[in-house]
Amino acid sequence: MNTLTRRSLVAAGLLLSLAATVSAQGWPRQTVTIVVPYTPGTGIDIIARTLAPRLAPRLGQAVLVDNKPGASGNIGASAVAKAAPDGHTLMITVNTFTITPALMKSMPYDPVADFAPVTKLAYGSMALVVNPTAMPVNSLDELVQYAKARPGKLNYGSPGNGTPQHLVMEVLKDRLGLNIVHVPYKGAAGANTDLLGGQIQLMVLPLHTALPFVQQGRLRVIGVSGEQRNPLAPDTPTLSELGLKNLEADLYFWLAAPAGTPPAVLEKLRKESHDILAMPEVRESLLKQGLVPSPSTSEEIASTIRNDVQRWKKFVAAQNITAD
């Protein structure tokens, strides 16, 4: 390589670096919109509305939350994938995003290639719970013994085929060798009602949903997802502690931008998001909703997303699971 060529390459690299810096310095030039691909009141929406008003003064522009529900999150996610990669359109989503590609024959976007993950924001534990009257067990060992003595006679519910509650329970059944019948409902409300009424015996629920009923004695938690105990239930063992290693059943939430967004913009968003998550009032507010702040690097959350997309594709195909 001659000297002129080397100098040209160095100059080109400096120009690219300068362009990224300039684009970050000039950003944002207008309102920043955080798309939530689900309805108001969901965990994603709560996180977005906690983050947005605190992010706005740090960026010097208004930050709005735009709910775009529908098609299992695909409407909102597709809008973000097609948006200009200039840092003015963002998305907060949850790991149902990594399940949907396994259940649909075609997708309006590539869940990996079309997005630039910024940071993980929070997680929520899932709990394996039983109705203690309909299924009088106190531990995972007792649950396995009880179920194996009644193959095909016990029922578990979920908000619908292909939901995280459904797939996590199918993973548990597969790992434990259980024959328990899945009863899909049209949403969580009906499933929760029948669990409390004893029409179904067990279920996987978000921990914060289960806890009020546990405190009333109407449900019993057998174990929770995650490698570490959840601060909302520090005395409750994880399923990992009980022998179910690498279950990876937490709900987790992250911030993303369209692919091609300048790295300096992504880094600014990551830093400001981490600073906000470190605020005591933010942590307390999220914990009250069952959400544990859990910031990450961009590389860490990107790797998790890639791995989960492949993991669910393989599992759904192997179990012949279909969407509603």
TrEMBL record:
InterPro entries (alphabetical): BUG, Bug_dom1
Keyword annotations: Signal
Gene3D superfamilies cross-referenced by the UniProt entry: Bordetella uptake gene, domain 1, Periplasmic binding protein-like II
First and last residue of the signal peptide: 1-24
Stated family: Belongs to the UPF0065 (bug) family.
The protein's name in its UniProt record: Tripartite tricarboxylate transporter substrate binding protein
